[in-house]
Predict the structure.
Amino acid sequence: MIAPVRPISLAEIENARKRIARTVLRTPLVKLDTGTRGPDIYLKLENLQPTNAYKIRGASNAVARLPDEERARGVWTISAGNAGQGVAYAARAFGAPCSVVAIETAPQTKLDRMRALGATIVPVSYEDAWRAAEAHAFDGMKGTFVHPFDNHDFIAGHGTMGLEIVEDLPEVRTVIAAIGGGGLITGVGSAVKALRPDVRIIGAEPETAAPYAQSLREGAPARFPDWQASFVDGAGGKSVTQRMWQRMQPVVDGTITVTLEQTRQAMRLIADKARAVAEGAGALSLAAALSGDQLDGPIVCIVSGGNIDLDKFAELVTA
């Protein structure tokens, strides 16, 4: 039975931080040089996590919260790569078997890393993976399902990032996070809003896959009509689920849609100024901050991950 949606409390996020402290890195908040007239931007470098993506926060909390007997039977998730790595990493720490229903178009780097962490890969199409995510089920999978975004403990784990942001930059005015399934922005938004209700929480989506922007226009969860696959494989779904719409609405103040070219340029800027590798989804937040929308600073842009084939990264940032 799927648990009903409820708010993520500050106490749950604080408890998650204690639970995952030995697994997850407290990532640095680095000021980005945008020039004398540029916006006041800081990068939250989640690409420096052991799995090079923020998903390890939620995965570690969700797997740690399972009873011993459930972990012993194994866990499984659905992923384009980053959630799979996070769950596999956490499962390995507990000696638990792990399987990943993996979107077959995921970058080879992500597939290889999931296997290296001990995960059994079950390749499926994007459509089949999204249907499984909506249904919280996939035929033939054994063990406990750890949903890659619609899971209370997973989201509470992501919220630990929000605690760090407010502690490291108390004067923060805007936080921007990529929206894929919605777990990242819900977790961070829940923590930040609990501590600083005045801070704006803004999503970022690529022009090829912006279902949350579509949903806001329609006033209800919606499918994005012209979805296209792109190098931004870690964000931008085909639709917003009813449950994630419920989760995001109280803590998200809006979203910005950016072009693929803006995203590519943001990847290049992060590499040039911060000497950090950001995958497409990881650069969406900076692309949104630089898009021209009027945002109050200081602005924190969450660089959610850096899992991208290096040849592809080099191609994108040198084009």
Q: What stands out?
A: The chain has two domains: 10-54+152-318, 56-145. The domain at 56-145 is CATH 3.40.50.1100 (Rossmann fold). The longest helix spans residues 152-168.
